[in-house]
């Protein structure tokens, strides 16, 4: 385990599980959702489940993963199976360097791609910076998709802020009470004929996934419920690399591997949508293409700040939050 610390944040990440963030704290509780269950049996400790999705879920405890070179359903690319959410998301990485407030890790994929990740903590605020570079190490062009999968406790009444009024698409396979029709943030149609305000985290048991597209800026904020002065958090990211935001609500799903034990919210900057994986994303023109020896870089920032009833109006790459 790698433990980083600054005067403002403490971070724990696991290089043997894709550099997965297990804990990020700003002097209090873990800002990330995390569950220390030992059931279901992990694929690490028993036979495979028969699909890379079930294998991945058997190892999943929440936290924050980087999804590479795939996000969503498994795909086959040039005869090579590319795993659900990308095989490097929970793979063993090479540790290139570790200091008190930073580390650099290297991952390789089944495709001829390598991913270098540098994690740094700010010295002047409660901000975490992730800077990543993907390089094509093969002798022909390679395509891939890329995303981040951070999850946070789904506290009922918490508020989500986004820039502008992006288009919203509801994942038909995971609608919860929503109608499977397009809408505009923050209000979308419900199956019962009403409307849902996506800015508010609901209290009822439901599982849903929405895709926010056409973002004008790359940031999202999660503030505690009205009147709660607890910790708020925000993400800012490279909109060119990750033009879409998946919002995944997982409230007490009774199925595998949750068994009714999890209540979490995923705020996921992503390269593509929907959830159907690399091959369809490539066909839609959503994938990155790298020529031999070519690289592409991106960044994402997490920042923590005191809870406020004023909506967030912006978050910079440095983690500076504005409200209004």
Please explain how this structure is put together.
It is a single chain. With 324 residues, this protein is mainly beta. It has one domain: Beta-galactosidase, Chain A, domain 5. Helices cover 4% and strands 43% of the residues. The protein has helices spanning 52-58, 278-283; strands spanning 2-5, 10-14, 20-25, 64-67, 75-77, 80-82, 94-99, 102-108, 113-121, 127-136, 142-144, 147-153, 159-161, 167-170, 183-184, 187-189, 195-197, 206-213, 219-223, 231-237, 244-251, 263-270, 288-290, 295-306, 312-315, 321-323. An 8-stranded antiparallel sheet has the order 7-8-9-10-24-20-19-13, with no helix packed on it. A hairpin with a 5-residue loop joins strand 2 and strand 3. The longest helix has 7 residues, at 52-58. It is globular and about 55 Å long. The protein starts with a strand and ends with a strand.
Short description:
The protein has a single domain, classed as Beta-galactosidase, Chain A, domain 5 (Distorted Sandwich), CATH 2.70.98.10.
* Number of helical stretches of at least 4 residues: 2
Distance between the termini: 39 Å
Give the count of structural domains: 1
Amount of helix: under 10%
In CATH, what is the class?
Answer: Mainly Beta
Overall pLDDT:
97
Query: What's the CATH architecture name?
Result: Distorted Sandwich
Give, in order, the helices and strands.
Answer: EEEHEEEEEEEEEEEEEEEEEEEHEEEE
Largest sheet: 8 strands, antiparallel
Fraction of residues in β-strands? 35-45%
And the CATH topology?
Answer: Beta-galactosidase, Chain A, domain 5
Adjacency order of strands in the biggest sheet: 7-8-9-10-24-20-19-13
Which structural class do you get from the secondary structure elements? mainly beta
Radius of gyration: 19 Å
Number of beta strands: 26
